[in-house]
Amino acid sequence: MRIALGVEYDGTDFLGWQRLSHGATVQGALEQALSRVAAQPVAVTCAGRTDAGVHGRCQVVHFDTDVEREMRGWVLGACSNLPPSVAVLWAQPVPDTFHARFSARSRRYRYTILNRPVRAALDARYVTWERHPLDAAAMQAAAQPLLGEHDFSAFRAVSCQAAHARRCVLAVAVRRQGEQVIVEIEANAFLHHMVRNIVGSLLPVGRGQQPVAWPGELLAGRDRAVAGPTAPSSGLTFVGPRYEAHWGLPAEVSQ
User: N or C: which end of the chain has fewer CB within 10 A?
Assistant: First the structure.
């Protein structure tokens, strides 16, 4: 049987999603918890790996097992064996043809910037602080050239192992919400550090240090060396993937 799970996590204290031998990861914690519920080893496959410090609102994973448990048992059993910073939101059986990564039509990220003179206390783990006033409207205009399919080499980490840099951005929006400036991006897939590098190149526009046309020029130039710095991981949340409705997954990950 193949089972899909929705997983929420605070990534602050993890070295990222992917299982490692030398430190705490979200995948490692989840597999350990599920293995206890199953009383045998369980390995999961996720929709999209996240880096150290990045959070997940509804990561989707699948795993195969011949162990019979109620779906509620997988949820409650996993949660009781997970650290407080990770929770399984839901579980449901899926066809063997479903694949958390390859069946996803798109992925969504949200980057949250606290834009005020004083640093955060309560929300420090989930935002990036920017003390200088930001022009969210200028950032929104600057982000629009990123829409569509392009070579995103200018926003690709040097360590990125993807076979090529072409990705299709389906939606991008920047808006102000009180003291926060929120950047939301949806694409068919993302390169390593792509969202954080895009945000790092939108921030100088918001501060008035670069013109609105600059991110589009960076995109066309394909040179990571002249683009903005990588924005901190704390402000980034993987909102989740989207799947076609016929898979029957919860509405938050279906389209």
Answer: C
